[in-house]
Write a structure and sequence with these properties.
The protein has one domain: Orthogonal Bundle (Actin-binding Protein, T-fimbrin, domain 1). Helix content is 53%, strand content 5%. It contains 5 helices and 2 strands; from the N terminus they run E-H-H-E-H-H-H. Strands 1-2 form a two-stranded parallel sheet. The chain is extended, with a radius of gyration of 20 Å. It comes from Schistosoma japonicum. One of its GO terms (biological process) is proteolysis. Belongs to the peptidase C48 family.
């Protein structure tokens, strides 16, 4: 089918705007190549990890407006990847459909949820320490 990628691909979700992603994909492919060569090539043979065997896409996804929310965006990308899976592995889908994957306000909510969870865990740990010295 025209425009559909039938080979394995790497999806690079980058929350920082205006970053060169081509070099990042190259590093990921090199890492996969080294891992294969080290762990699997003896038993499973030679396998190439390059742009001809593993495509790379960097979908247009919501981006952060500061330099401190990388981790929160990463967590939310993973969550969204499972809640709203990619429907079509096409360039058009990656460039247009995923830009509105989630509103930026969701990231603020995620930050608040993480904060509340950490406070809750801290409080529980303190209670357990005082109850069971």
């Amino acid at each position: 089918q025209r425009g559909v990628n039938a080979m394995p691909c790497v999806l690079l979700f980058d929350s920082l705007p205006c970053q060169s992603r081509v070099s990042n994909l190259h590093v990921i492919r090199n890492y996969l190549q080294v891992e294969w060569n080290t762990r699997r090539s003896v038993q499973d043979g030679v396998l190439r990890f390059d742009k001809d065997t593993i495509r790379g896409f960097s979908p247009r996804v919501p981006v952060q407006s500061n330099l401190v929310d990388c981790g929160i965006y990463l967590l939310h990308y993973v969550e969204m990847f499972f809640k709203k899976p990619v429907q079509s592995y096409t360039k058009d889908y990656f460039q247009h459909e995923m830009a509105g994957w989630f509103p930026e306000a969701t990231v603020s909510q995620k930050r608040a949820q993480i904060h509340d969870l950490l406070v809750s865990l801290r409080d529980r740990t303190l209670r357990e320490k005082t109850t069971n010295p």
